[in-house]
Design goal:
Number of strands: 0
Helix content: 40-55%
Strand content: under 5%
Radius of gyration: 18 Å
Structural class: mainly alpha
């Protein structure tokens, strides 16, 4: 199933299909971010540096990030 493979809702896939049917591939092109970033340039740089260290550096067992809340 497409939704499962992409890890999105079935409704999203249905919406994308409807957009494709109505406007072809151009209808699926990104419209850009929905809002302005809330992080400053300095905060982005800090985030990028921490992400570059990888999950294991932050206490996770392997190199997979998780959506779990809280510490590993």
């Amino acid at each position: 199933m497409i939704a499962r493979d992409l890890r999105v809702s079935v409704r999203s896939v249905q919406r994308w299909r409807r957009m494709w049917d109505e406007g072809g591939p151009r209808a699926l092109r990104s419209q850009g971010p929905a809002s302005l970033p809330r992080l400053s340039e300095k905060q982005f740089a800090q985030l990028e540096a921490e992400l570059a260290k990888g999950p294991a550096e932050h206490g996770w067992e392997d190199q997979r990030w998780t959506r779990c809340v809280g510490r590993p």
